[in-house]
Amino acid sequence: MVFFSYLISGISLGSVYAIIALGYTMVYGIAKMLNFAHGDVIMVGGYVCYCALSYLHLPAIVSVPLAMIACTVLGVVIEGLAYRPLRQAGSLAVLITAIGVSYFLQNGAQLIWSATPKNFASVVHFDLPSSLTSLGLSSEAIVTVGACIVIMIALTTFVNKTKLGKAMRCCSEDKGAAQIMGINVNRTISMTFAIGSALAAVAGVLLCSAYPTLQPTTGSMPGIKAFTAAVFGGIGSIPGAFLGGLLLGVIEAMAKAYISTNLANTIVFAVLIIVLLVRPTGLLGKYAPEKV
Amino acid sequence: MSSLLKVDNIHVYYGSIHAIKGVSFEVNEGEVVTLIGANGAGKSTTLNTVAGLLKPKSGTIEFEGKSIVGVPAYKTVFHGMALCPEGRRIFLQMTVQENLEMGGYSRPNSEIEASLANVYERFPRLKERYKQVAGTLSGGEQQMLAMGRALMSKPKLLMLDEPSMGLAPILVEQIFDIVKELNEAGTTILLVEQNARMALSVAHRAYVLETGTISMTGDAHELAEDDRVRKAYLGES
Ligand SMILES: Nc1ncnc2c1ncn2[C@@H]1O[C@H](COP(=O)(O)OP(=O)(O)OP(=O)(O)O)[C@@H](O)[C@H]1O
Ligand SMILES: [Mg+2]
Prior knowledge:
The structure holds 2 protein chains of 2 kinds. In chain A, 74% of the residues lie in helices and 1% in strands. Chain A is mostly helical. Chain A is globular. By secondary structure, chain B is an alpha/beta fold. Chain B has 2 domains: 3-80 and 155-233, P-loop containing nucleotide triphosphate hydrolases (Rossmann fold, 3-Layer(aba) Sandwich); 92-154, no CATH class. In chain B, the strands form 2 sheets. In chain B, strands 6-7-8-3-9-10 form a 6-stranded mixed beta sheet, with helices on both faces. A 4-stranded antiparallel beta sheet of chain B has the order 2-1-4-5, covered by helices on one side. In chain B, helix 3 packs parallel to helix 6. The radius of gyration of chain B is 17 Å and the shape is globular. At the A-B interface, helix 7 and helix 8 of A face helix 2 and helix 3 of B. The structure holds adenosine-5'-triphosphate (ATP) and magnesium ion. Residues 43-44, 86, 161 of chain B line the site of magnesium ion (MG).
């Protein structure tokens, strides 16, 4: 029974990682860059939702989409202002810029919302029968896992079936060839950031609902973990991000429960290193991860 | 015969490398025109510039009488030109049919079915393999896919960059037969080739490119008889 409740908390945490990892992996797959500021977009999503709920007294059904819209715009603006001018530059320059954007967002958030943690009220709470809660199930866990599965299926369908999704796959393979098909590569990359950032907002809301403390650094650790998950599953691969996120969450929860809370992160990264030694492209990856 | 493509005195640079030094040529509607030249002469650079992948520093390019200098590559296809690039550049992780659909990206969705049927009729091999991932096709099949993909946009001008590269002689012949058929069916073709013999045999007119400038031009059959061309490009003495 106790094991089961650890498993549930692992899957639920893993689902959040998976949603964030999907954003990382899409941007990496198409723009071939690691957007280290992705984690901080999650935090901004959390704050926007928090403000809409607490200051504007809007219902969750409005606040969450509002956070998604705000993050979509933020993602597109970041890409256009910070990354697009570096399209021809080396990957190191892009990486350093991404780290800069990450600090910019964290400090900007501190300026606007102060460093004092905010108490985020869960937006996905509903009462469960006690037979379920005694198993360790929570409404947050159910919604998070459900959202993750829906997002994963929707993204896979989008990338395989829609014209824009296929254009993204073309850009991922060969930007020059994509252009002569008539694909506007800049716009396609913009759309990728838009989708990734909207997902980051969802992840932010779910994360804060499960772990209610919201502060400017809220996104950074989950961001790094999700990046790890994306590499673990095979960066550039959508099912890989999903699998990597879930596994990482479960490994972390189990390590916390049965080994040591303090060592949990160390164990997570040790597993990553072992997987990459055995399979350098990650569990489901096609692309070799860029060395950074 | 009216001029479809008119390139006038273009200069193209890669950084400080002056790759194209004042090239001018013209392609008339209904023609097959070939650009021949040795490795590094600037053939691909010329095609890529016309397609909009590179921007000339000076000079003009007119397509159907309209200037297209500075029009980015993703828009030139909407004007009616298609480039089948050097090295094929098909999408290796996509299926044959997906590659073709991407070729029709610039066309309305309602036309795709008919264009697909058209391409499959010309390349029955592709139809047999429509679900196969393009990376697993043979070299010849990949070339057919690259040409089929370019045709999906129903181009007025089809630009082929070394379609015979790396193919066995029998396939080379097949590719040139297809070029001829496409032209007879009404497509204007600008063909870049190192295989000068084959190129001159299907082309109406030819230009010889030498280190970034046009050194000779004329009727393809006459050029094939020219002593200098025979020595330099047909391997005869
Ligand atoms: N991306 C590039 N950067 C710098 N120089 C380049 C680049 N691409 C081509 N060049 C140079 O421009 C010149 C023309 O190259 P281009 O590829 O157009 O030749 P080509 O005639 O197509 O040759 P080939 O028959 O080998 O394909 C060459 O000297 C080449 O080294
Ligand atoms: Mg070439």
